[in-house]
């Protein structure tokens, strides 16, 4: 899973990226510090793997992973090539979801590219650049579809959706905010529009605002209100605190979070939001050699889940020996769970559930 971190210059974007990936991307108090997207791979923590590791005494544990792309700061006019615009927009096209870091803190020592703090204005600046880029794509597609329509009347439906999208974009509204049917969304996905990508607004607040936590500042409230119009997620973090967390060992990290009165890190919140936004779940495989988590879309059937492991397993799928993680944990071993009749044999139509522990039977 690839997530692209975007934002105006100096909003804390690269600071956050450095902290959550420990990748050491350059971070400086001036625009265009990041030119090529830095890439950091982060393991997704899953306590269930620790339980299975102990149960099977496995040689290794493999967590699923997320790739974070630190995409350079966008500025007004990026869709027309301002700054390093077109290059950045092409990087956004490659990711599954956008994490838009929005500055929700005041600090006179960190300049704002527009001279004043205004999260809604910042959001609008970047969203409009994505919208302008999409408008060009839609214009070309409409022209092409109108020509093809003369010989294929079945394209009338597509043309109507394209014109609906065009009207929405002209109103300055992102495609992700549109109310479309499932079939219409499936068509939209083929267009690879930037403003259609799922988005998490990451409100970067000061250390004090995050720790006090009982009342969100006015900037965060503005971001939350706007996010509702797009069915977007909002995660409140402090990039500075994430930076401090990144320098600690696991045990120190837990103690530090507890001391601050925080239940989880910003990275943990981002991962949870990403899974929720993209409708993802994990199933698990376990044995003496390894225990492992695999990420799939919710609603995936057993053969396609098997294909995440290897295409041969999907092709030769026979059945899936399945148990819910909680049942396995409660009984302490697969043998004990089998005695209680908790292990099921599922066929090709079985929809895999989050936390299923599966052994795939196949023949190639």
TrEMBL record:
Q: Which Pfam families match?
A: MMR_HSR1, YchF-GTPase_C
Q: Does the keyword ATP-binding apply?
A: yes
Q: Tell me its cofactors.
A: Mg(2+)
Can you name a GO cellular component term? cytoplasm
Q: Which residues form the OBG-type G domain?
A: 1-257
Single annotated GO MF: ribosomal large subunit binding
Q: Which residues bind ATP?
A: 10-15
Q: Which residues form a coiled coil?
A: 231-258
Show where the TGS domain sits: 279-362
Keyword terms? ATP-binding, Coiled coil, Magnesium, Metal-binding, Nucleotide-binding
Q: Which domain of life is it from?
A: Bacteria
Please name the PANTHER family in this protein's record: OBG GTPASE FAMILY (PTHR23305), OBG-TYPE G DOMAIN-CONTAINING PROTEIN (PTHR23305:SF18)
Q: Enumerate the HAMAP family for this protein.
A: YchF_OLA1_ATPase
What is known about what this protein does?
A: ATPase that binds to both the 70S ribosome and the 50S ribosomal subunit in a nucleotide-independent manner.
Belongs to which family?
A: Belongs to the TRAFAC class OBG-HflX-like GTPase superfamily. OBG GTPase family. YchF/OLA1 subfamily.
Q: What is this protein called?
A: Ribosome-binding ATPase YchF
Origin organism is Maledivibacter halophilus
The gene for this chain is ychF
């Amino acid at each position: 899973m690839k997530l692209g971190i975007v934002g105006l210059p100096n909003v804390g974007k690269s600071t956050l990226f450095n902290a959550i990936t420990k990748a050491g991307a350059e971070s400086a108090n001036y625009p265009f510090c990041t030119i090529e997207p830095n890439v950091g791979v982060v393991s997704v923590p899953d306590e269930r793997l620790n339980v299975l590791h102990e149960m099977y005494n496995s040689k290794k544990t493999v967590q699923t992973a997320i790739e974070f792309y630190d995409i350079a700061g966008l500025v007004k006019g990026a869709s027309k090539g301002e700054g390093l615009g077109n290059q950045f927009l092409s990087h956004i096209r490659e990711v599954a979801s956008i994490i838009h870091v929005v500055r929700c803190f005041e600090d006179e020592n960190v300049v704002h590219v527009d001279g004043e703090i205004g999260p809604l204005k910042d959001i609008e600046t970047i969203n409009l650049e994505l919208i302008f880029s999409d408008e060009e794509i839609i214009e070309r597609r409409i022209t092409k579809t109108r020509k093809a329509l003369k010989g294929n009347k079945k394209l009338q439906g597509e043309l109507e959706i394209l014109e609906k999208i065009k009207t929405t974009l002209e109103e300055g509204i992102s495609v992700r905010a549109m109310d479309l049917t499932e079939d219409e969304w499936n068509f939209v996905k083929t267009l690879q529009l930037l403003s259609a990508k799922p988005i998490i607004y990451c409100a970067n607040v000061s250390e004090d605002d995050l720790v006090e936590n009982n009342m969100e500042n006015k900037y965060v409230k503005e971001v939350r209100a706007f996010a509702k119009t797009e069915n977007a997620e909002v995660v409140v973090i402090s990039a500075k605190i994430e930076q401090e967390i990144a320098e600690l060992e696991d045990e120190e990290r837990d103690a530090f979070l507890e001391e601050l009165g925080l239940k989880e890190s910003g990275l943990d919140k981002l991962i949870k939001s990403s899974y929720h936004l993209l409708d993802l779940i994990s199933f698990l495989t376990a044995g003496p050699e390894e225990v492992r988590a695999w990420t799939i879309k919710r609603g995936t059937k057993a053969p396609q889940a098997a294909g995440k492991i290897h295409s041969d397993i999907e092709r030769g799928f026979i059945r899936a020996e399945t148990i819910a993680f909680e049942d396995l944990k409660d009984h302490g071993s697969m043998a004990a769970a089998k005695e209680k009749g908790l292990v099921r044999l599922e066929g090709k139509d079985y929809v895999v559930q989050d936390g299923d522990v599966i052994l795939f039977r196949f023949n190639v």
